[in-house]
Amino acid sequence: MSKHKQINKQTKTSIVDAIYKKSDHMLKDIHSVSDLFFAEMFQALERGETIEIRGFGTFSVQFRKGRKGMRNPKTGELVDTADHSVVVFRPGKILSAAVRPLVEEDAPDAKR
Fold first, then answer.
1. pLDDT one-digit tens code per residue, 30-58
2. pLDDT value of position 1
3. What is the per-residue pLDDT for 8?
4. Among residues 58, 61, 52, 56, which one has the least CA distance to residue 93?
5. Region 19-30 average pLDDT
6. What are the sequence ranges of the domains in the chain?
7. Cα dist. 57→22, 41, 67 in Å?
8. Backbone region of residue 84 per phi and psi (left: phi > 0; alpha: psi in -120 to 50; beta: other values)
9. What is the CA radius of gyration of the chain?
10. Cut 0.85: pTM above it
């Protein structure tokens, strides 16, 4: 279970619907643009490129070296993990500042 209470969940569809309500564009056009946007992000990350969205954050691909002798938590069996890459998100200063008060309010046990 997450140590932070989940206030609300947004999906791609709910974000597209919110944009539709605030704009003069057709819903299908907004869906098309969002699909193209995420497809381009996907392809850029697949190529190992970094995506920087000013004011929001940076997506990048990082290499993780495999490890030997890790224990499978379900079976207790020792297993080796392979080298692999992961997508990492680093929030920008503006986004970090915007969510900081929410985290403090939702986590009363947080060390301050």
1. 999 999 999 999 999 999 999 999 999 99
2. 44
3. 80
4. 56
5. 97
6. 9-49
7. 24, 13, 29
8. beta
9. 19
10. no
User: Three-state DSSP class for 33?
Assistant: helix
Q: Which residue has the tokens 């564009």?
A: 25
Q: Which sign does the torsion angle of CA 36, 37, 42, 45 carry?
A: positive
Phi, psi of 92 (to 5 degrees): -75, 170
Supply the mean pLDDT for the chain: 88
Task: Say which DSSP state 31 is in.
Answer: H
Report the percent of the chain where pLDDT is more than 90.
Answer: 65
- The Cβ of residue 92 has, within 10 Å, a number of other Cβ atoms equal to 15
Rounded distance, CA 4 to CA 51, Å? Answer: 27
Tokens of 102: 């929410």
- Coil/strand/helix, residue 84: strand
**CA 42, 44, 50, 55 torsion: positive or negative?**
negative
E strands in the chain: 51-53, 57-64, 70-71, 78-79, 84-91
- Of the candidates 46, 66, 43, 58, the residue with the CA atom closest to the CA atom of residue 88: 58
